[in-house]
Design goal:
alpha/beta; Trp Operon Repressor, Chain A; 2 domains; three-stranded mixed sheet
């Protein structure tokens, strides 16, 4: 996968790409990235990338020319059409399902905004996806872009040490993940559930599914309401309700 990030602050992103899972994925040649300062594509003699909004109002608006030129430079001579993602508070709320969808792509271009907003022609004529990581405002789009990159790259083949890890994460199944325990079996009077110590894998799987349902029922009922549970899950959910 190729990931190109258009940003005014590439230094905000450098550290993340040289750490942890992203660094490992680069070393395994599972993806490649470029941090592109779109100010370099401005034809303004002062390299300006923003201007006052028509009609007045607070703040400055990113002009279309530098971003259009940067995307055209990236896609020149490319045989495939990339997904062009605009980090934007007006976009669709980012989910694990969206991460899985983007992980199937060969090329992503992510545009990080700044200032008051974008010239609307960027939104309507250039991008394929608008993404928001939540209902709050950030100073610029770089943090959101890192969220997208990290969540996508960890889904690429052979990036995680355990191939099952991504499949079992919260939201990957539509449910929150079950609790985890490790050694020691008892710590300050708190014991690991007996079922996890007995080595009966079918019982462990049942316990994990029930606790995943319980955690989702208690913390994110909205997720449960959007899922179609199978018969076993429905039975476990009824047990959870009776436990109350």
């Amino acid at each position: 996968m190729q990931i190109d990030i258009l940003t005014l602050f590439p230094e905000m992103l450098d550290g993340a790409f040289n750490s942890s899972i992203l660094k490992r994925a680069i070393e395994k040649e599972q993806f490649n990235y470029n941090l592109i300062n779109f100010r370099n594509f401005s034809t303004n003699k002062h390299k300006k990338v923003d201007d006052y909004p028509y009609g007045g109002g607070a703040g400055m608006v990113l002009t279309p020319q530098p971003i259009f030129n940067a995307v055209e430079h990236i896609t020149k001579d490319k045989k495939t059409t990339p997904r062009v993602i605009l980090m934007c508070p007006q976009g669709e709320t980012y989910t694990q399902k969206k991460a899985e969808e983007l992980a199937e792509e060969d090329h992503l271009i992510i545009i990080c905004g700044h200032y008051e907003g974008y010239d609307e022609r960027i939104r309507t004529s250039l991008v394929t996806d608008e993404i928001s990581i939540g209902d709050y405002i950030l100073t610029s789009g770089e943090i959101g872009a890192l969220v997208v990159v990290d969540s996508v790259v960890r889904l690429l083949p052979n990036v995680l040490g355990n191939t099952e890890s991504a499949k079992e994460d919260s939201f990957s199944t539509g449910l929150l993940e079950h609790p985890h325990y490790t050694r020691p079996a008892e710590f300050k009077g708190m014991r690991v559930p007996d079922v996890l110590l007995q080595g009966h894998h079918a019982e462990i799987d049942r316990w994990r599914m029930k606790e995943s349902l319980r955690r989702t029922y208690e913390r994110r009922l909205d997720l449960l309401e959007s899922l179609q549970l199978n018969e076993e899950q429905l039975r476990l959910l009824e047990e959870i309700k009776n436990d109350e």
